[in-house]
């Protein structure tokens, strides 16, 4: 055996030992190279209940202080938004979560409920006049691709009685059931139930706000009320 072969044999044994050690640890050299070269596989995004399409997340609920007037915190294009029909017969429609994620008033807190939303007459102190909302409502109808109807309410997703605020991100043209004769709709009863639960301390302010913003149709059930 010549000198070159005597050097080659120890080197071969050393490489074999290193490879065996890597396999025992679950990392073969070839596997490591393959993993490094392979692109990451994106994880599937679960559907967002309440109207967000699969793979798309709704925008987060905003915090905006705008008493007495509608804050234009979003610029939306005509036809950009679409309400989701849950049950047309009973008037259950959800806003487009990408256009109307909801917004709360930071001036309303868990600590000052008795002097804000749980005080009689509170909403009248922060509700915008019709002269302000009528113009914004017309724009919202175009954004949602809807035509004006006497039964359509320009509604706060998180109502003022739940500490919601006046902003484009919290207002939407809510369709009503076909048999409706006015703007009273099934969401009103949900708002009243949540308001009572907040003021009797059965649920927290933030829990109620998040539940109705997420899906007002299931909010009462989601909160165990």
From TrEMBL:
Origin organism lineage: Bacteria, Bacillati, Actinomycetota, Actinomycetes, Micrococcales
Superkingdom of origin organism: Bacteria
Keywords: Signal
UniProt-recorded name of the protein: HNH endonuclease
Signal peptide: 1-21
């Amino acid at each position: 055996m010549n000198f070159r072969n005597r050097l080659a044999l120890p080197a071969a044994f050393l490489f074999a030992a290193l490879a065996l050690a890597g396999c025992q640890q679950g990392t073969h050299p070839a596997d490591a190279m393959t993993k490094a070269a392979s692109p990451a596989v994106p994880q599937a995004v679960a559907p967002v209940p309440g109207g967000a399409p699969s793979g798309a997340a709704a925008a987060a609920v905003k915090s905006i202080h705008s008493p007495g007037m509608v804050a234009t915190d979003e610029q939306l294009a005509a036809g950009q938004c679409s309400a989701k029909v849950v049950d047309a017969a009973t008037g259950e429609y959800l806003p487009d979560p990408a256009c109307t994620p909801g917004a709360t008033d930071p001036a309303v807190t868990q600590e000052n409920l008795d002097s804000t939303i749980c005080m009689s007459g509170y909403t009248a102190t922060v509700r915008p006049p019709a002269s302000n909302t009528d113009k914004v409502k017309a724009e919202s109808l175009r954004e949602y691709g809807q035509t004006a109807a006497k039964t359509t309410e320009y509604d706060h997703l998180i109502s003022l009685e739940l500490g919601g605020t006046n902003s484009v991100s919290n207002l939407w043209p809510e369709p009503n059931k076909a048999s409706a004769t006015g703007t009273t709709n099934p969401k009103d009863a949900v708002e009243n139930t949540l308001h009572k639960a907040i003021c009797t301390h059965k649920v927290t302010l933030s829990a109620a706000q998040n539940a109705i913003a997420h899906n007002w149709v299931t909010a009462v059930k989601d909160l165990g009320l």
